[in-house]
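User: ok so my PI wants both of these folded by tonight, can you help

Assistant: No problem, let's get them done. Here's the first:
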Amino acid sequence: MRHLKDTVIIQTAYLGDCVLTLPLAKTLKECSDIGNVTVVCRPEVKAVFRFSSSVDKIIVYDKKGKDKGLAGALRIIKKLKSKKFDTAFLPQRSFRSGLMAFLSRIPERIGFNRGGAAFFLTSKCKYNWKKHEVERLLDIAGLAGCVNKKRSFDLLPASLPAQNLSLKYREIFNKGDKKKIVGIAPQSKWPTKCWPEERYKELAKSIKEKAKVVIFGVEKEEWPEGVINLTAGTSVKELIAAINEIDILVSNDSGIMHIAAALGKPVIVIYGATVPDLGFTPYGNESVIIQTELECRPCGLHGPKKCRLGHFKCMKNIKTSTVREALYEKIRA
């Protein structure tokens, strides 16, 4: 392939998807044929790419806000066209992403053979369901002759602003004592991915004497006295810095889980509507997976808003004691 002066990654999906895109960005950045790496993303996740030294520039596409609709999409297309990118990589397989790359007149458009974007691509590879999503995304880098066996996320660089944020949470968590810091992430954009909140509260209450408990999330909730509650007013960049200071995370299948894994933190994942075989497990670390074997699982790539069978056994059958025992075993290891 000819020399690629500038390349753009169009990734306008959710937090977890953006974290899993980081090894692709790093691989492209380290490839001798690649110049600058730009990412198109949603405003709420731009900190993921800002905290990566593999990304040179960010173009924010607020597709649910100011860039909503045709007029907004055309503004982004005009901006992309003005940058005169040589190559676009499309980890997200959506029709809109493919169309935008095509209308931006980007000569090389690389992605997968599945989804609406495939129609607009100049090079595509098989979307292999047997692989992890990180490995699948590195397959499209391979189409451009870029290979990186290290699989690094490069999420929290040793820059002063990032380290200052980490220091802030180090002080909040009072890391001077010997208690382990356990993060709990009870939320997800998909309700059937969520273990019942009362179980998480039972877990927090039962371990708070033996460990420091930090709650992460996007909505303000009431939690047992004695836990550190970061469920409201925490930006994504602050969330990354805070997770960098914990020792272990208990989480649903969510974006926060992927942040923890990218930072090398052990993760205990509770699976409900989704299953690990879909390829979105915590990548590159020794995670513990807790799930209930049921014939109705999985109910989809993300899971529906409500259990289609009305029983939600995939989550309700998982006891608090099961998660607590897995947590203590991981802490002792």
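One down. Here's the second:
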Amino acid sequence: MTKSKTTPSTNRPARKAGGGQKLAPAGATAVAAMGPTGTTAEMEKKFAGLRRFNLIMGFLHLVQGILMIVLSNATTYPIFTNYLNFDVASRSLSPNPQLLYELRFGPAVAAFLLISAVAHFYLSTVGYERYVRNLKQSMNPVRFYEYALSSSLMIVLIGMLVGLWDLGAILLIFTLNASMNLFGIMMELHNQRTNRTDWTAFIYGCIAGIVPWIVITLYFVGAVNSGEAKPPAFVYAIVPILFVFFNIFAINMVLQYKKVGRWADYLFGERVYIVLSLAAKTVLAWVIFAGTLAPV
């Protein structure tokens, strides 16, 4: 009498993620992270189009960055430290503001444009194959790494325009904004293995991302109510306009994961990200230039 051999089943049950979220079975395609659709020929055409699009965007950012360096005046904004100092007379601790550095705004504005240029050139050249592999999985981590640097620099410069000049505060809002973008990577990575979209990373990213804007709003309102020392007129436009831009990025992600209309194709959302990035950086750069960096 022979014993029948039992072969292990390949239909493994779905595992559960934290909070009861079910993960896709091993080897299965996760519903929450469906990649771009179409025939092989259609997909190759779309990817080639994105490659050209990134290359064009790289040049647009590069040209603007160079122009910003060449045309800007020498306007600077201060960065202070506020370490405690012991007052012998009153026997108490008190802040001791010290000028640490005068930041030239022209090169600083150019920097976030040039960071984007480098990312676009990478994706359209040496990083193109990896870019395509990630897009097929509804991912683009390079996008969020670039945003973690460029948009965090943008938020710092906006803060400095309304008087946020403390080194510690600058480092904190930079890091919080960078963390928001790194949560974007986690959102796309986590949902590779979920049957339904898990919004945990998105929610945490929104919490991290709103804090710098709360701080900027406090400084902006304080500056507006400070009598004669009001912020320049162009700052009144920059704060609300860039706040709206930053939130449209989050809306784009929601539309991708909700698969609303054309956003059902991940590559459409990718193009929207690219256009939003160029628009936000262009608006901030040239409004600042017109307001404070244009040569007299």
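Confidence is low (pLDDT under 50) at residues 1-15. The first strand starts at residue 76 and ends at 87. Good luck tonight!
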